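=== RUN LOG ===
request id: a7f3
mode: sequence -> structure
chains: 1
length: 215
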Amino acid sequence: MGLADYKDAIGTAASASSFVLLLSPVFLCLKIWKNKSSQGIPFFPLMEMMARSVLLVQQGLLMKVKPMVFTHSIGIMLNLVYVTVYVSFTKDKRDVKKSLWRLVAFLAPLVAYAHYEDKALVEYRFGNITTTLTISLMFYHLYHLKHVFKTKDTKDLPFPILVAAALVTFLWTLYGTAINKPFIQIQTGFGFLVCLFELSLFLVFPSKPEQKKTD
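=== RESULT ===
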């Protein structure tokens, strides 16, 4: 028996584990709700999650990958709630709304392209687009690790979320292998390697800076 024989079980496990990450912004929203303000909480991660869910739903539809469509359809609904909470309590409503319009302007042509491109070509071409964007975002996150290397301190890295992300990306990579979808393998496999790299930093640098002794 090969990996393909367990594709349904792996797909279910990957989909279920994804909800851990999709629910992670709940804690931010509770903090915003409690403080009645989104001050100090960046909006970009919510935009990124929304963009990823929209693109992955479209990719799942093109590839006929039901677990991906199901998971990220729920992701879109959850992200709509998160964005609504953020917008409701931000003081910079104008800037946030501009960011949302930019997100719409970015996603709309891609979704339209997926519907109007030649059916024989669209899965491959849209897969390339999604893979390029996914890897670009991973490099963007790696760029922000410069602070960790500068301070030699990992206290700002979200260890539990990284562990969850490593598990999720590993399961989706297995699922992509089981159903023979190289784009899923590349996208999630690269994400898995990035998560492992970030987790390895906890072995190199302490999570809390050492206190200097004073006389």
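=== NOTES ===
The longest helix spans residues 119-143.
The CA atoms of residues 182 and 191 lie 14 Å apart.
=== END ===
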